[in-house]
Amino acid sequence: MHRFANPARFLRIARPATGWLLALGLLLIAAGVLGGLFVTPPDYLQGETVRILYIHVPTAWLGMSGWSGIAIASLFTIVWRHPLAGVAARAIAPVGALFAFLCLATGSIWGRPTWGTWWEWDGRLTSMLVLFFLYLGYIALAAADKERGPDGRVAAIFGLVGAVNLPIIHFSVKWWRTLHQGESIELTGSSVAPELLWPLPLTLVGFSALFGALVLIRMRTELAETKAEARLKRMVTQ
Amino acid sequence: MRAAAKHQRLVLVLLGLAALIGAVLLAMWGLADRAAYFRTPQDIAAGRVPAGEPIRLGGMVQAGSIARQPDGVSVAFVVTDGPASVPVRYRGIVPDLFKENSGVVAEGRLSPAGLFVADTILAKHDERYMPPQLGNQAAEVRTKDTVER
């Protein structure tokens, strides 16, 4: 991993990867959304509202993966003092927050016609809302921590501690009785009929690629800002 | 020295995480009862739900139990989780997905006579998604696993 401690080496891979990920993401999202809107049949109970799942599930997955990424980057910051880990975590946070918010919003829009309510304080909904607030807290804390110094340890500790919410979100529907249904797709199989399921992998991979591209863009921006600041400082002192 | 410091930090972080996960698991275990979103007919049958207290009751709507009342705005039905069932009364508009053999969560109070008077009815969707032809067959063999969750 320390091969990438040199930003130049990281950028040599990140620059072309950004474009490819963005193109792949948009293509797959378009295919999945078109398939999900026009090709798949409606659900036997929910009717047309089922189609929101092709957006809701990827945003939930990325909202949670985003924090997993922050936690892993935090570990690299604390243990190995990797110089890019903090940049990566700060780049992920607003993107993860956006996807967590989209997950809550699409879920709410689906809940109104399906359950008959926009919002209920059940285990799954509440723990996902907590994740969104953790992101907001992390963004503020990481920005303040960066002002303080370059090691970013305070934000990293918060990133690791916040990760305990991830298993809570995942298992909330198993541990407690919730209004939210259980897992439809597990390693052992899926309770979604195949003719309804197929656009989901497309949007899952598509939004993941888009997420990756957004994070890379933000990382490159921060590296470029750091470089510009260093150059300005040199100009002033000369 | 560098490698040793790294090693020490790694061990510290792992110990910290283990302690944190342990604490959270304990808290979740303690919360299990309070965090449940709804009570079941079995809870009521076992006398764990005092009458007159606001609770949510969850379960399946028993087949053939939905009866529209003569006043035109009330509905009576039975919520069951298999071993136990509770009669429910509700005045108002039910959600579209409120159906027999389907999951439901009712908010309201238990009367001393054992009738559950609901103020709000929510439909509980389960984790199965299928096209209409398949769904109608599957509805015949509906299980009660939604209730167990």
Protein architecture, described:
- Chain A is mainly α.
- Chain A contains 8 helices and 2 strands, in the order H-H-H-H-H-H-E-E-H-H.
- Chain A has one domain (55-182, 194-237).
- With 149 residues, chain B is an alpha+beta fold.
- Chain B folds into 2 domains: 1-35; 41-148, OB fold (Dihydrolipoamide Acetyltransferase, E2P) (Beta Barrel), CATH 2.40.50.
- Chain B contains 4 helices and 6 strands, in the order ααββββββαα.
- A 5-stranded mixed β-barrel of chain B has the order 1-3-4-6-5.
- The longest helix of chain B has 34 residues, at 2-35.
Q: Which fold name corresponds to the CATH topology of the largest domain in chain B? A: OB fold (Dihydrolipoamide Acetyltransferase, E2P)
Distance between the termini of chain B: 52 Å
- Spatial strand order of the main sheet of chain B: 1-3-4-6-5
The topology string of helices and strands of chain B comes to HHEEEEEEHH
- Number of extended strands of chain A: 2
> Regarding CATH, which class of the largest domain in chain B?
Mainly Beta
Number of helices of chain A: 8
Which spans of chain A have pLDDT < 50 for at least 5 consecutive residues? none
Biggest beta-sheet profile of chain B: 5 strands, mixed, barrel
Proportion of helical residues of chain A? over 70%
Structural shape of chain A:
globular
Number of helices of chain B: 4
